[in-house]
């Protein structure tokens, strides 16, 4: 069974006439990283809320079509400061907040929290007050907090928005490791240059509907570049009217150049 | 925080008993005692976080009471309100929401209810912090909260609207965020570090409850002259 299956899903927020998602069908297999790309308002965040069983259950609104999940999902929201519990004295307590809410035994909570802190390189911050952390540190704490709940399907909404370059690289590596462990990953991001290394498949959303699905090579195609969804190298290559096909990454471009 | 900390239930019991006694005990002496104790507790948290907010919040009530009532009634009700305000200010300053959640969960309460109560008690400092942030943002845009009455009213409007709207918006965001953190009804949360609840404190809480009941019975049997 797939980690996540959306079958002709459409979603309307409360008191809106037009749907935020239109007839979206999508599958995420265990161990697969699927990236959602699109312009602002394309529906990527809404799709994650639907996939995470938060819309319409928590947000309200109306869902048509079918959504099936194999495992419990965990979602990393784009604003880490709103996802903090506000009930923890230390980073360790903050990461343990979710597992404790699941009613796990204390030794299991401890194991999962320690593992998540190590994965996000947060061990040196374990005893810090979460209120004193920077945006990037808080983002890593929230990612650790979600991973400590051991979800089978992990949903990331702009997870690198608050991270510096090194932090983002660590996160992309971690996402590949999570996929290797068998977790399904659905990732909405505007960090297009990272996707060739991170994503197995790319889903291009436009006005709430799926416009195209493919391998990350999709991000080097003319249509994607024209829509502002190409990788930097592919976009520059096309803008310079260099010969087809446009390379996807800098490594591809160097290879072509040689 | 330094020194021994009282169990959250003990803090709640004290903060509940003082206003109860203020209304039960005969005025103005009863109210004077409870107000003095509540103000002393508020002052124990420091002048800025404790005593000043209590006095400044209670002051308008005294003014309105004086406009509406005679002096003895104003004093009687004013002392009771001062007790309520000072007790609440002290409670907000002394009670750590995380400890309250842990204590309630350890006592068998649902985590959702515990979080709701703790979040309510921490709403005042959260709103205060946000208000300061909005004032700073408005200053950056050239809107000064100082000056004459007209300027202050303009600044108040520029503060109140974003404060209310952002608070309402955050309710939705918090609900969403807490769901993502596993805070859903029907699952018993594992207490991580329940605060110690010594026998002495448990006995003290019962004593406070009995004191309230005794005062109530006495008040009903021996009506005060006022």
Condensed summary:
Helix content of chain A is 35%, strand content 22%.
Description of the molecule:
The complex is a heterodimer of chains A (258) and B (226). Helix content of chain A is 35%, strand content 22%. Chain A has helices spanning 44-51, 80-83, 91-101, 106-119, 135-147, 165-180, 195-198, 222-226, 232-239, 250-257, and strands at 4-12, 21-28, 33-38, 62-69, 73-76, 153-157, 184-188, 201-206, 209-214. In chain A, α6 links the parallel β6 (153-157) and β7. The longest helix of chain A has 16 residues, at 165-180. Chain A is globular, with a radius of gyration of 19 Å. The model of chain A has no long low-confidence stretch (mean pLDDT 95). Chain B is mainly alpha-helical. Helices cover 77% and strands 0% of the residues of chain B. Chain B is built from 9 helices and no strands. Chain B has helices at 8-24, 29-44, 47-68, 71-94, 97-106, 111-121, 123-140, 149-180, 199-221. Chain B is flat, with a radius of gyration of 21 Å. Classes of the chains: A alpha/beta (258), B mainly alpha (226).
């Amino acid at each position: 069974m797939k980690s996540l299956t959306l079958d002709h899903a459409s979603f309307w927020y409360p008191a809106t006439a037009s749907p935020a998602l239109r007839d979206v069908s999508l599958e995420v297999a265990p161990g697969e990283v699927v990236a959602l790309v699109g312009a602002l308002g394309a529906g990527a965040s809404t799709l994650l809320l639907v996939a995470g069983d938060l819309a319409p259950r928590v947000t309200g609104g109306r869902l048509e079509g079918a959504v099936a999940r194999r495992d419990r999902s965990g979602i990393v929201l784009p604003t880490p400061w709103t996802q903090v519990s506000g009930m923890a004295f230390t980073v360790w307590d903050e990461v343990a907040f979710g597992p404790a809410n699941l009613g796990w035994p204390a030794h299991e909570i401890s194991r999962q929290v320690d593992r998540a802190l190590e994965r996000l390189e947060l061990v040196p911050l374990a005893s810090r007050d979460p209120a004193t952390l920077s945006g990037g540190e808080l983002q890593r704490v929230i990612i650790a907090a979600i991973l400590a709940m051991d979800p089978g399907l992990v949903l990331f909404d702009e997870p690198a928005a608050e991270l510096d370059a090194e932090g983002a690289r660590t996160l992309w590596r971690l996402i590949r490791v999570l996929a290797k462990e068998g977790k399904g990953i659905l990732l909405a991001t505007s960090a297009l240059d990272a996707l060739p290394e991170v994503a197995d498949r790319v889903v291009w959303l436009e006005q709430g509907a799926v416009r195209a699905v493919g391998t990350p090579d999709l991000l080097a195609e003319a249509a994607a570049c024209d829509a502002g969804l190409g990788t930097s190298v592919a976009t520059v290559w096309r803008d310079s009217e260099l010969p087809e096909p446009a390379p996807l990454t800098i490594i591809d471009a160097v290879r072509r150049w040689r | 925080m330094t020194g021994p900390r009282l169990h959250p239930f003990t803090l709640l019991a004290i903060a509940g008993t003082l206003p109860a006694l203020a209304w039960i005990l005969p005025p103005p002496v009863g109210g004077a005692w409870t107000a003095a104790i509540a103000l002393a507790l508020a002052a124990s948290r420091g002048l800025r976080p404790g005593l000043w907010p209590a006095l400044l919040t209670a002051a308008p009530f005294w003014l309105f009471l004086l406009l509406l009532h005679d002096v003895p009634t104003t004093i009687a009700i004013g002392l009771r309100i001062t007790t309520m305000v000072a007790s609440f200010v002290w409670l907000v300053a002394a009670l750590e929401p995380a400890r309250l959640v842990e204590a309630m969960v350890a006592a068998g309460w649902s985590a959702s209810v515990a979080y709701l109560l703790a979040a309510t008690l921490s709403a005042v400092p959260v709103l205060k912090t946000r208000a300061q942030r909005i004032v700073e943002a408005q200053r950056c845009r050239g809107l000064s909260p100082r000056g004459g009455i007209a300027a202050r009213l303009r600044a108040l409007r520029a503060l109140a609207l974003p404060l209310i709207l952002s608070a309402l918006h955050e309710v939705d965001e918090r609900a969403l965020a807490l769901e993502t953190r596993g805070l859903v009804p029907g699952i018993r949360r594992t207490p991580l570090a329940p605060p110690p609840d010594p026998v002495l404190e448990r006995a003290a809480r019962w004593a406070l409850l009995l004191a309230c009941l005794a005062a109530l019975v006495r008040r009903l049997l021996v009506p005060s002259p006022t």
